[in-house]
Amino acid sequence: MNEMKIAVLGSEGVGKSALIVRFLTRRFIGEYASSSECMYSKRLSVDGRQISLELYEPCSQACDGKSTLNDQIHWADGFIVVYDISDRSSFLTAKATVHLIRDLQLGTAKRDVESIIFLVGNKQDLCHMREVRHEEGQRLAGEFHCQFYELSAAEHYQEVALIFSKMVHNASMGSKAKERRRRPSGSKSMAKLINNVFGKRRKSV
Ligand SMILES: Nc1nc2c(ncn2[C@@H]2O[C@H](COP(=O)(O)OP(=O)(O)OP(=O)(O)O)[C@@H](O)[C@H]2O)c(=O)[nH]1
Ligand SMILES: [Mg+2]
User: Where exactly are the transmembrane stretches of this chain (predicted)?
Assistant: First the structure.
């Protein structure tokens, strides 16, 4: 069984949990507790191979510390960097994150990092409140040679599923020679996930 580790990064409230849970359950669930980091596990079959997939979402507050982000970058096989198209500051955070991933990955391994970083502009349904133009996302992705998607976790299940399966495919093609680090936290049980989903109410967008 191959192991695969994907980190879903981005500033607070951009929809990281929404995207992950949409992929895992097909459902859009609007509210999540965000006080702790989360690890989600799923087994799936890709190109005829069994893969044990781990999706990691750091606590967004802790994400500010560069050393923590460094750990996540060394741990993961692939990165989904999310911003909210209606929040320019989240785009700037995404830019800094992509920058750091490229720097660290290029510094530690000579493998092709382009296919394992996806830049994702979420909340496309809020286009009437848009602060980041589609072309800006495209340009940033072009600059860093990563893949760019714009979508809505709330409205587009197919696109969300496509992104995750593409990432799993791309990351599984990459070299597995990278030394494994300990994962940042333990796996999240379904009970904890459900707790997270229903445990805390937050203002809807
Ligand atoms: N309109 C709209 N709202 C969304 C979308 N995706 C997420 N949201 C909302 O944005 C808010 C934050 O979503 P989360 O999934 O908790 O975001 P997060 O990035 O996990 O946030 P933290 O864990 O707090 O860092 C919630 O109120 C979601 O309902 C989307 O595609 N469209
Ligand atoms: Mg979250």
Answer: none
Ligand with smallest separation from the Cα of 31: 1
Would you state the structure tokens that stand for residue 77, as one six-digit string?
A: 């096989």
Determine which residue's CA is closest to atom 29 belonging to ligand 1: 30
Q: Which atom of ligand 1 is nearest to the CA of 32?
A: 16
Of all protein residues, the one whose alpha carbon is nearest to atom 8 of ligand 1 is: 15
Cα torsion for 127, 128, 134, 137, to the nearest 10°?
A: -80
Per-residue pLDDT tens digits for 88-123: 999 999 999 999 998 887 655 545 677 899 999 999
- Whether 11 and 60 have beta carbons less than 8 Å apart is answered as yes
Q: Two tokens at 47? A: 């190109």
Provide the residue type at 74 as one letter. H
Bridge-based pairing of strands 2-9 and 38-46 is unpaired
Q: Are 181 and 75 in contact (CB under 8 A)?
A: yes
Coil, helix or strand at residue 47: coil
Starting from the edge strand earliest in sequence, which strands make up the sheet with 117-122, in order?
A: 38-46, 49-57, 2-9, 78-84, 117-122, 147-150
- Structure-model confidence comparison of residues 200 and 83, the more confident one: 83
CA distance 38 to 187: 8
**Measured between alpha carbons, how far is 96 from 75 in angstroms, rounded to an integer?**
18
Determine if ligand 1 sits within 6 Å of the CB of residue 17.
yes
**Structure confidence by residue, pLDDT tens digits, 56-88:** 998 876 545 555 777 778 889 999 999 999 999
